[in-house]
Amino acid sequence: MQVAAALGFNNEYAGTYFLYVTYWTCLLQAAYLLLAFVAVAKFPAHKPLYRTCWCLRNIVAPASCMVAGLYWSLIFPSNMTTDF
Amino acid sequence: MLLDLAVARYPLYLKHFWQPLLYVFLYVLFNGLYVAAGGTDSYGNHHIYEVLNYKPLGNSLILLALVLFVFLPLIFAGQLGWVRLFVRLSPGTLPDHPARPPTSHPHLRQLLAPAAARRQHAHLVACLIGIIYDPVVAGEEGAELANGGLGHRGGGRRGIGWRSEAVIEGREREGEKGAKGGWQAIHQHNGSGWCKKRTWACMQVELRGRHRKRRHTRGDVFDTWKERQGRALG
């Protein structure tokens, strides 16, 4: 989904996908989860992979919380009404 | 991510704060360059985020400073506390292995010893922020840090991790009294010098099993540092 959106299948953000820190973090998070799964399932003793996952986790964990916090506090329009 | 922080074996150290900081800084740099170059967002505006439009510049800079130096550190400290909470709740199953010295080179390590001590204090402060400070675990970490870490970083067949002081000083091969941690710890524990599965995580478990046989207190930590500094000074 992320790759499809990055390639421009989502018309709203076509060509501007990589401008937003939300999507940077989303891609990093997907990469971390994928690498962590591979590291655990296939290469449990692969030290470079372990270190890569470790580094990605160190970045993604605070960055995802930061992005969520900043979005809901600063970006999300406070005057938006929900139309059911 | 909170669940992942709780269950994953990757340790989280205060000294790794530069990694998310660098990530945010890189994005801010990209954002600034993009806007300065006349780029537009998906709606044709000359900014990416309304709150970060650099008009006026001062407001955007204040916001960035708040994010980089207040909001992000708070999140990181909270996550440190979160991880330590789960380490404390389930000892022996989650990463509680010590912070390692930045280098195994003896002269450089002597130079960096005060910095390592400061990191130790910073780590204790982070624990206090998390309101889950555990003096026993913190004491063990400090003592291991002062003793030169647990294992090797020699590579090859000698394992992964950091060399102990005894190894660096050449006392390991003779089996001189005082050689502790590192190679000998692994060797004495499983008789082969290698963690059986040869994985980082497994080695940490092995080392921790060996390490738990001797307890340290905070007094030991600072005594060790004093001894160490005394040796360094001659």
Individual helix count of chain B = 9
What percentage of residues of chain A falls in helices of 4 or more residues? Answer: 55-70%
Rounded to the nearest angstrom, the distance between the terminal CA atoms of chain B is 49 Å
Residue share in β-strands of chain A: under 5%
The biggest sheet of chain B, with number of strands, parallel, antiparallel or mixed sense and barrel status, is: none
Structural class of chain A: mainly alpha
* Share of helical residues of chain B: 55-70%
The coarse overall form of chain A would be flat
The largest contact between protein chains, plus residue counts on each side, is:
A-B, 33 and 35 residues
| Main β-sheet description of chain A | none
Question: Any key phrases for this structure?
Answer:
heterodimer, A: 84 residues, mainly alpha, 3 helices, 0% strand, B: 234 residues, 2 domains
Fold and architecture overview:
The complex is a heterodimer of chains A (84) and B (234). With 84 residues, chain A is mostly helical. Chain A is built from three helices and no strands. Chain B is mainly α and 234 residues long. Chain B has two domains: 1-94, no CATH class; 97-234, no CATH class. Chain B has helices at 2-7, 18-36, 57-89, 106-129, 135-146, 165-168, 182-190, 200-211, 218-233. In chain B, 29% of the residues are buried.
Please outline what is shown here.
The complex is a heterodimer of chains A (84) and B (234). Chain A has 84 residues and is mainly alpha-helical.
Mind sketching the topology for me?
The complex is a heterodimer of chains A (84) and B (234).
Chain A: H1 2-6, H2 21-41, H3 47-75
Chain B: H1 2-7, H2 18-36, H3 57-89, H4 106-129, H5 135-146, H6 165-168, H7 182-190, H8 200-211, H9 218-233
Helix pairs in contact in B: 3-4, 4-5, 5-9, 7-8
